[in-house]
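$ ./design --mode recover --in tokens.txt
reading tokens...
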């Protein structure tokens, strides 16, 4: 079964909050429907208000601040493109090869053309009966519109080992992941896996923990699941342990996002 060409995330919250040191795993196109999104790094800050579209390149890292309008709801629709989709886009639309790829983030107006393309893609990606070909076609439509506005993502090269582990764990967050189990999935020894992750400045346990925390944040922002259900889904059999881990990672408890 082929992986989905893109994935959707709906972020809706009435609580102002910051997601610190968030890593962008896949190239993303976002649409600020309500409120304001701020991205900041040591080198500067970028703000996107309602009616703007923004892109974030994969393998970048930001502090993300999500700001609801006064007394209202913050809403962002986010589309993440699988590496294979970006690669196939470049194969099919080689005329954009000369454009410089986005290095950090960029933005454009979420005008009628953008909202139509984005909505078409959303409809296909959410339709269980849509064919793989149609889903890819609609994902290409969004990438093509952005490219015609001068915004393109770089072709994908090899994934880092941290990304490989993250993607593996994300498929079964609740599993009791061990170094040996992860290494076996990649047909390498545990020592080889540890060495390769160490060269990237991380560990297997760190990758597992980050994958679970990223998933928990996404579910808290975009679903109405109970915190206890999210904890169990992410592999925590103790609500208190989950809360402590979440607070350590983000600086506030999960309940902060559920007033």
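writing sequence...
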């Amino acid at each position: 079964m082929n992986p989905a060409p893109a994935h959707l995330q709906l972020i809706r919250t009435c609580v102002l909050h910051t997601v610190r040191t968030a890593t962008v795993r896949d190239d993303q196109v976002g649409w600020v429907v309500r409120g304001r999104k701020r991205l900041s790094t040591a080198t500067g800050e970028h703000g996107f208000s309602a009616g703007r579209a923004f892109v974030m390149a994969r393998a970048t890292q930001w502090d993300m601040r999500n700001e609801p309008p006064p007394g209202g709801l913050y809403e962002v629709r986010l589309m993440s493109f699988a590496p294979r989709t970006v690669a196939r886009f470049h194969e099919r639309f080689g005329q954009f090869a000369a454009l410089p790829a986005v290095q950090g983030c960029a933005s454009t107006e979420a005008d009628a053309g953008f909202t139509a393309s984005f909505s078409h893609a959303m409809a296909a990606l959410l339709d269980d009966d849509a064919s793989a070909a149609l889903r890819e076609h609609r994902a290409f439509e969004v990438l093509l519109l952005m490219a015609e506005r001068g915004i393109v993502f770089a072709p994908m090269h090899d994934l880092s080992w941290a990304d490989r582990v993250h993607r593996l764990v994300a498929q079964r967050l609740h599993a009791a992941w061990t170094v040996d189990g992860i290494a076996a999935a990649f047909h390498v020894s545990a020592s080889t896996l540890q060495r390769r992750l160490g060269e990237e400045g991380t560990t297997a346990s760190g990758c597992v923990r980050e994958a679970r925390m990223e998933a928990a944040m996404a579910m808290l922002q975009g679903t109405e699941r109970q915190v206890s259900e999210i904890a169990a889904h992410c592999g925590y059999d103790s609500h208190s342990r989950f809360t402590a881990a979440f607070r350590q990672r983000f600086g506030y408890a999960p309940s902060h996002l559920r007033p």
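exit 0
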